[in-house]
Each structure stands twice: as structure tokens, then as C-alpha cells.
Amino acid sequence: MVSFASFVGLLFLVGFARCANDTNSSAINITGNAFFNSATGERFYIRGVDYQPGGSSNLTDPLASPTICRRDIPVFQELGINTIRVYTVDNSLDHQECMEMLQHAGIYLILDVNTPDSSISRSNPNCSYNTDYLQSIFATVDAFANYDNVLGFFAGNEVINQVNNTYTAPYVKSVVRDMKRYIRTRGYRRIPVGYSAADISSNRQLVAEYFNCGDDADARIDMFGVNDYSWCGRSSFQVSGYSTKMQIYQDYSVPIFLSEFGCNEVPSSRPFTEIGSIYSSRMSSVFSGGLVYEYSNEDNRYGLVQIESETEVTRLPDFYNLKYEYGNTSNPSGGGGYSTSNDHSSCPDYDAGTWEANNTIPEMPSAASAYFRSGAGAAQGTGFLTQDSCYNDASDNDDDSSSSSSSSSSSSSSSSSTSSAASSSGISSSSATPSSSSSSSRESSSSSRGSAAVLETPLFFQIICEMFNMMF
Ligand SMILES: *[C@@H]1O[C@H](CO)[C@@H](O)[C@H](O)[C@H]1NC(C)=O
Ligand SMILES: *[C@@H]1O[C@H](CO)[C@@H](O)[C@H](O)[C@H]1NC(C)=O
Ligand SMILES: *[C@@H]1O[C@H](CO)[C@@H](O)[C@H](O)[C@H]1NC(C)=O
Ligand SMILES: *[C@@H]1O[C@H](CO)[C@@H](O)[C@H](O)[C@H]1NC(C)=O
Ligand SMILES: *[C@@H]1O[C@H](CO)[C@@H](O)[C@H](O)[C@H]1NC(C)=O
Ligand SMILES: *[C@@H]1O[C@H](CO)[C@@H](O)[C@H](O)[C@H]1NC(C)=O
Ligand SMILES: *[C@@H]1O[C@H](CO)[C@@H](O)[C@H](O)[C@H]1NC(C)=O
Ligand SMILES: *[C@@H]1O[C@H](CO)[C@@H](O)[C@H](O)[C@H]1NC(C)=O
């Protein structure tokens, strides 16, 4: 006789074996300058796309809509990617269904925590680095930290987007530090925190060094993204300048990847021949793959697909070219020449006109320490205007007793954030590379196709896995 208890026990064993083997969704770890699948121990190369259908002119959170996820995730799988990067989400919405669909499809998320309204402002960075702002990004961390397929967070994207705004760097570095401390203090998995840099020749190397320097390990990034459009058309490792980048970053101690690539200064469709270089042993000792800019076709014409409706996309020639290149390019074998022997960078000196960032970075606004004790509290969503909220900090006169609930009222007192106060959101309007040029969406035309289920895991195992995951 099999008792009920042993039957349940058997279910758990089956569930355990099944879930333990579901390596698709295992957390990604960092060792040295490379990513690894924590379950299989294999080196992990990002094969990804940047994903923000609607662009900046019609900001929608694609991870809050199961309909959109059901439309796009099978397309990601057909393309052969393992990662998406999303520039802005609404931290007050529910992301569970989409995150689980991504997880079952073996797709990781790199998430920018900023929104256009809640980010470091280039016109007044000191003011924009305030308690309300931290509440916003910490609430975003709270909303995503429990998903194992979150590969990492970006604390900022192209905040430094010119020769002349390097003075913003200390504030972004403070944000990196605060996020890393928040993640640790709240007891979350040690999710990597990084910065995604614009490619500006005068400060390219300085930015990389600055974010990975100094004695305070919390203030150093865990990973570095470079937005790089230097390979155009059928270029080459030498001609594109990739070979030079290999030299610049050869001693870097943390993973580097292309957080945007895919130059579209080509006569017709993009051939994506850089894939063969990026995933070769010529680059794998320094680079861990990258993300193509971008999934949906917006006004700036970088799309792989045309969004037709909430349930349909049309694959463009770029999609097929990229799919072909991925299919024909396997990862370098073994560790790909990754390194564990590099030390963190040394800090660049302050240099007027070139590098105007001090190595003493701002302290966290003291009221924000309440979030470390009790969490960020209620999420305020994308309309939370924080760039001018330093005035709240100043008048608060507070002792740590401020709680997250105070931040909702404070948002209404902020004056409107002007669009000239450029933000660190990836899709802000005035930065150096295409992610920031404004892109407008198109009206969705209505469509006939219903949503198709994409979950391939049989329901039985899903339930077991969920029970299993809840228990451990
Ligand atoms: C895990 O799955 C792979 C194929 O998906 C299979 O080859 C392997 O034997 C499985 N491992 C275990 C321990 O079940
Ligand atoms: C690697 O990942 C596992 C599973 O998430 C985690 O328990 C472990 O602490 C990680 N190791 C490092 C060095 O981050
Ligand atoms: C893992 O990912 C691969 C490739 O995306 C997919 O074919 C496979 O079905 C996934 N396995 C599980 C268990 O989700
Ligand atoms: C930086 O330079 C740009 C032009 O290249 C100019 O529009 C902008 O006002 C300058 N910003 C500052 C803070 O000087
Ligand atoms: C696939 O890539 C290899 C180089 O990795 C190249 O030699 C080969 O020509 C490619 N195949 C096709 C059909 O282009
Ligand atoms: C840089 O920080 C030092 C303190 O370490 C301070 O004395 C100096 O004025 C700062 N320089 C600038 C330009 O902010
Ligand atoms: C930055 O802002 C804080 C309060 O918001 C203020 O106390 C501090 O003096 C400011 N620092 C600078 C350099 O403006
Ligand atoms: C913005 O996007 C949403 C969702 O895709 C869509 O329903 C809406 O019509 C779009 N609005 C504009 C002005 O394009």
C-alpha cells in the first residue's frame, strides 16, 4: 500500500527532479569578468534584444501585459535569444504572468530601474538624487527581485551622453551603491547592478574606470553595458573598432556586454554580421554578448518586427537576418578565455572639461534609510515625478521616520519635470545613441488572432514546480 504521504513525497521528488533540471530559469552568477548559469556552471553569453514596444512617446510596460507577452515571447524564441532588456516598467503593476512566461521560455531580463519622471536629471543631478527617487527605484527592485530570471538591473542608461555632462557620474555611482546595499539589506539574491554607457570617445574609458573603481565595493558596478553602434553593415573586427575596444577593456574586472548594438546606417536591411565576431573567441575573453537595438520598429527604424496589433507582429528582413546569424554562430567552447585575475580599476582624476566627477560620491539622503528597514512600500508607478523632490527632503527635516507612504503625497508637490531636464531613462529624449532618440508608436490595428498559449511545461509539472518553489 502506498500511503498518501508517500504519494505526496513522490510528487515532490518528481517535482524536485523536474524543477532542478529546469536550468533555463536558474539564476545567472558572476565570476571574474563573466556570467555563468548557476545550475549548470556553463558560461552565459547574452543573446538579446532591447525591448520597449511603443518607444518613449507611448510608454507602456510590456511586462505587465500577458497579451503582449504571449504575442512576443514565441517570437523571441524563434529568434533564438536568451535575454531582453526593458528600459522602463511601471512598478505598481503586476508582472508575475509575464515573468513566468519568460522564465519558462529560458529568457532573462535586464531591467533599467528608472522612468523618464523618476531618474537622475542632467540639469540638476543633486536635486534629482532624493528620497522619493530612491523610493521609486527601490520599489522597482522589490517588484522584480524575487524572479530568478532577472539577470541584472541597470542603475542608469546614458546619463553621461555628452562630453560636457560627466558631472552627473557621482550621482549615478551613488545610485549603484544604494541599490546594491538595498538588495543585500533586504535579503534578496545578489542581483547584479550595472550601468549602460553611451559611446563617447572622449570619456569612453573614463566612464568604464570610474564606475568600477574605489575602495567601496558597494559603489562599484557588477557589470558594464556599452551602447555601441560602431559596426555598420558588412564591417569587420578591425574596421568596426571592436579590436580597439578589446584593448581598452582587456583588464576590466567585471562582465562587459553590448547593451545596445545594431547600426542602421545601411542601404537596406541590417546583415548583423557582427554576431559572428561578438560570439567568437576573439571577443569572449572580454565581452559576454549583447543586445540588439531593438525589437519593435519605431520612428527611428531600428526594428526587427513591426507591431501590427496587441496580438500580431510582422517579422521584418532584419529579423530573418539576425535569426540566421544567431543560428549559424555558436558560443566559444569552455570558459571562452574569461578572467578572474583582473583587479578593479583605478579612479580617474578630476579633470576640468574632460572628467568632472569627484571620487567622493554623495551620501544617500538620510530619510531613505527607512526603506532599508521596512522596504520601499507602495509603488507609485511611472507618473511619479521625483526630479525636483529635493525640496521635500529639505523641508522634511526628518529622522528616518518617514515612510514610503509619504512619497505619494510628495509627488504632487513636485513641479513638472521639464523634458529639457534629460533623464537617465533609456528612452529619454536627448542622448547620444538611438535608444534615446524619441520614437513614436503607431496605432494598433485590430486583429483577428487570439492569444496562443506558450507554456510548454505541462500543467502538472508547473504546479509541482510552483509548490516546490514556494517551499524553498
Ligand atoms: C536534464 O534535461 C536534459 C535534457 O533537457 C537531460 O538530457 C538530462 O538528462 C536531464 N538531467 C536530469 C538530472 O534529469
Ligand atoms: C550563485 O547562484 C546561487 C543560486 O542563485 C546562489 O545561491 C549563490 O550564492 C551564487 N553565488 C555567487 C558567488 O553569487
Ligand atoms: C529551455 O529553453 C529552450 C530554448 O529556449 C527551450 O527549447 C526549452 O523548451 C526550454 N526548456 C524548459 C524546460 O523550459
Ligand atoms: C553641453 O553641450 C551641448 C552641445 O553640445 C549643449 O547643448 C549643452 O547645453 C551643454 N550642456 C552644458 C551643461 O553645458
Ligand atoms: C556560418 O558561419 C561560418 C563562420 O563561423 C561561415 O564560414 C559560414 O560561411 C557561415 N555559413 C553560411 C551559410 O553563411
Ligand atoms: C571633490 O571632493 C573633495 C573632497 O574629497 C572636495 O574637497 C572637492 O571640492 C570636490 N571637488 C569638486 C569639484 O566637487
Ligand atoms: C545637494 O542637495 C542636498 C539636499 O538635497 C544639499 O544638502 C546639498 O548641499 C546639495 N549639494 C550640492 C553640492 O549642491
Ligand atoms: C499606446 O500603446 C497602447 C498599447 O500598445 C495602445 O493601446 C495605444 O493606442 C497607444 N497610443 C498611441 C497614442 O499610440
Automatic annotation (TrEMBL):
Kindly state a single biological-process term from the GO annotations of this entry. Answer: fungal-type cell wall organization
- Biased region (Low complexity) positions are 402-450
Q: What is the official name of this protein in its record?
A: 1,3-beta-glucanosyltransferase
Q: Where is this region: Disordered?
A: 389-450
Hey, what's the signal peptide range on this chain? 1-19
Gene3D superfamilies, alphabetized: Glycosidases
Domain of life the protein comes from: Eukaryota
**According to the UniProt entry, what is the EC number of this protein?**
2.4.1.-
Pfam families to which the protein is assigned, alphabetical: Glyco_hydro_72
Bilayer disposition of the protein: Lipid-anchor; GPI-anchor
Q: Which UniProt keywords apply?
A: Cell wall biogenesis/degradation, Disulfide bond, Glycoprotein, GPI-anchor, Lipoprotein, Membrane, Signal, Transferase
Cite a single GO MF annotation.
Answer: 1,3-beta-glucanosyltransferase activity
Q: What does this protein do?
A: Splits internally a 1,3-beta-glucan molecule and transfers the newly generated reducing end (the donor) to the non-reducing end of another 1,3-beta-glucan molecule (the acceptor) forming a 1,3-beta linkage, resulting in the elongation of 1,3-beta-glucan chains in the cell wall.
Localization per Swiss-Prot or TrEMBL: Cell envelope; Cell membrane; Membrane
- Source organism per UniProt: Zygotorulaspora mrakii
Family membership noted in the UniProt record: Belongs to the glycosyl hydrolase 72 family.
Q: Name one GO cellular component term.
A: fungal-type cell wall
Enzyme class name:
transferase
